[in-house]
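For consistency, the fold was encoded as tokens, as this record shows:
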Amino acid sequence: MTKLTIDTIENILFENKKLLLDKSTFDRVENSFKFLKEFSKNKIIYGVNTGFGPMAQYRIEDENTIQLQYNLIRSHCTGIGEPLTLDQTKAAVIARFNTLSLGYSGIHPSVLVLMQELVNRDILPVIYQHGSVGASGDLVQLAHLALTLIGEGEVFYKGEIKSTKEVFELENLQPIEVHIREGLSIMNGTSVMTGIGMVNLIKVNQLINLSITLSSMMNEIVQSFDDHYSKPLNEAKQHVGQRYVANKMTDFLNDSKLVKKRADELYQERTEKIFEEKVQEYYSLRCVPQILGPIYDTWNAAKEVLENEINSASDNPIIDVENQTVHHGGNFHGDYVSLELDKLKLAVTRLSMLSERQLNYLVNPKINNILPPFVNLGTLGFNFGLQAAQFTATSTTAENQTLSTSMYVHSIPNNNDNQDIVSMGTNAATICAKVIDNTFEVLTVQSMAVTQAIEFLQIQDKLSSKGKAFYDSIRKIVPVFKEDEVIYPYLKEVKKYLLNNKVN
């Protein structure tokens, strides 16, 4: 079976690629189903002929086992709050599809057939943010998926929320039938936190590249020396991320006419006692590889963990066709995902802090010594430039700092203490998503400030080719601010552009 990667997810979500169910997968799932159907006769298997959670001690008679699954699905549709975004929901469904396709769940293959159709037709269950403690996986949120699969509840359809029954009739789709344990198999796992985590990863990759772009342009604006991102300096440290960022900056600034070589400026004979130019830049400009490097490494580590998780069987019990048995355990526990998304959230908050400090450098003439206050291109005192926009960036960064407290260590026992230590993985995923969205807003303000600074200095023709391309893209959205005007519509449009366009 081909491993599902972040690139596959991105292609399905944003490039309209289709989710495929091949024959070998169908056969593998069908074999698992047939084995469980035969094996479960006259045996006690959790979730097949027992109650759930602390009520697993109660045997369910054969005539009630099918209804048991429907009871489980309907009773656990208790999600509340805002719905997940369409991207998050679609990624969660893909994640569950992939987990079930491994053949460890004992489901009827018709479940996968319908899930494939829902993804490919953009018919997505309404799944709410709040409800999961991250162990037994995402029971509540995945119950809303299961509810859709049995033809009940609500779905997103052509930009509206409609009843599943109505949409299935319009699209000529048939709900699944419960055969053995389809309810528990669909619900019991980490697919929602993992799906949201995958979307987070895609967006964080954009943020890292965007921050490298803006950081490089900051160095152009101040005409910094080029040795702080040089290969010899950064290869003196062993960290992959630091070297990656330094190499990206080197590539970005390769054809810039603004950055300076230290040997040309300071390694010649100089007699003055006080130097007009800065010998070294502030940390937010000089230490970019050292700051963004660990953020990249954190992203890379999270990518490995989440790709492992999305290709894992995360329900309970596990149907082992090869060894002809069933294993009970805790593969639904979301600790791996929770910890990585907490770390990713911290890293993204740090990225927003770097952006906020670089923004502060631009708007404070006492620091930069080359720009007017708040990169105000109008009349000082009479006009305000980006003074108020800085407030927005600062407050949003502060919110990120508060949101960066850990969910991973915030376990609260529940379920009559059956779930006595839980991952809070889905909370970690959704809060991480909020921090990511906030960070796009901070970088939106910085993008506008950078273009204003370039405008004031009239250095457009000296920028690197990549810097000029980015400047032009923002300038198409935002005019040159001289007179004061309402800024928030421009902020919205720039944020939209940054979210929907990759920066390399």
